[in-house]
Amino acid sequence: MGDAHLRTLEDLPATPQPSGERTDRPAEGRRLTRLRSPRSPRLWFEILLIAVSYWTYSMIRNAVPEQKTQALRNADWIWRAEHALGIAVEHTVNHAVNSMTWLIVSMNYYYATLHFIVTIGVLIWLYRWHPGRYAAARLALFATTGVALVGYYFYPLAPPRLMPDGGFVDTVIEHGTWGSMASGNLASMSNQYAAMPSMHIGWSLWCGLTIALLAKPLWARALGLLYPATTLTVIVSTANHFWLDALGGVLCLAFGYALAGAWYGGLPHRLARYVGMAEPAPL
Q: Is the torsion defined by CA of 136, 269, 42, 117 positive or negative?
C-alpha cells in the first residue's frame, strides 16, 4: 500500500481574494451617484459658495493682463468683421440713444446694477421654490462664468467706447453716472479689456431662461424673456460690448447648460422640483 498523505490547509490552493480595485468600485460608484444626484441646498453653504466663487471670479478676471495693444487690435478686427457681416450698427445705436439723456442714464444704472441684483434674486427664488433644480441651475451659471475666464485670458478685447478712432460715446463719462465700474474713477478696479464674452448676456440669458421655463404666471415668463433682450440693447447702447461679444456669452451659456445636463442627467427645468418628497398640492 502507498503511504497515506494527509492534506493540510497549507496544501490547499489559496482562494483568490478580490482585488482592492474591484471591492472599492461599487463604493466609488455610489459616491459618484450621490454627487450627481440633486440634493436640497443648504443656505450657509450656498452663501459661502457664491461669495467665494464671485471673489475668485473677480480676482482672476482682474488679474488677467490687460494687454491694451492686443485688445484694441482685436476690437478693430471685430468691428471690421461686423461691417463685413452687415451688423455693425453699434455706433448708430450708441449715438441715437445717447441723445436721450433720461434713457441713456437709466441704461447706465441698469448696466451697473441689475447684472448682479437680478442674478442673485433668481438664485434665491430657485433656492426657495425649486430646491431640486437649484444645484443644476447653479452649476450651469458657474460653468458659464468659469469658461468666460478662458475667453478673457486668451482673447483680450476693448469695448467699443475705448476704441480711440471708433467715434463711440462713453456714456458713463458723458453723463457722469455714479457708481459704474465700467468708466470713470472706478474703472481701475476692473479689467476694462475683458469684453469677450459678455457675461451681462450670459447671466441675463441664464436668468431669463430660468424664469421663462419655471415660472407659472405668463407675465413672469414674458419678463424673463424680455430681460436678456433689454440687456442686449443696453450693452450696445452704452458702447460696452459688440454684438459678437453677446454671441460669445450665449456660447458660454450653452457650455454651462451642457455640463449641467451631463452631470445631473437632465437640464434644470426637467429635474424634479423637490428632492425626496412629493410636490405639495397647490394652495
A: positive
d(CA 6, CA 81): 90
pLDDT in tens, 61-85: 777 666 889 999 999 999 999 999 9
Cα–Cα distance for residue pair 134/141, rounded to 1 Å: 11
Q: Are 210 and 199 in contact (CB under 8 A)?
A: no
Burial of 16 (0-12, 13-18, 19+ CB in 10 A): exposed
Instruction: Transcribe the chain into DSSP letters.
Output: -PPP----TTTSPPPPPPPHHHHHHHHHHHHHHHHTS-----HHHHHHHHHHHHHHHHHHHHHS---HHHHHHHHHHHHHHHHHHT---HHHHHHHHHTSHHHHHHHHHHHHHHHHHHHHHHHHHHHHH-HHHHHHHHHHHHHHHHHHHHHHHHS-B--GGG-TTT----HHHHHT-TT-SSSGGGGGGS-TTB-SS-HHHHHHHHHHHHHHHH--SHHHHHHHHHHHHHHHHHHHHTTS--HHHHHHHHHHHHHHHHHHHHHHTS-GGGS-SSSSSPPPPP-
Beta bridge partners of 157: 194
Decide if 169 contacts 239 (C-beta within 8 A): yes
Tell me the C-alpha distance between 101 and 235, whole Å: 16
In the chain the first and final C-alpha atoms are separated, in Å, by: 93
Q: If we measure between CA atoms, which residue out of 145, 146, 128, 127 comes closest to residue 136?
A: 127
Cell numbers placing 182: 465700467
Cell digits of residue 272: 424634479
How sure is the predictor about 139, in pLDDT bands with cuts at 50, 70 and 90?
A: very high
Its pTM stands at: 0.81
Q: Which three cell numbers stand for residue 133?
A: 433644480
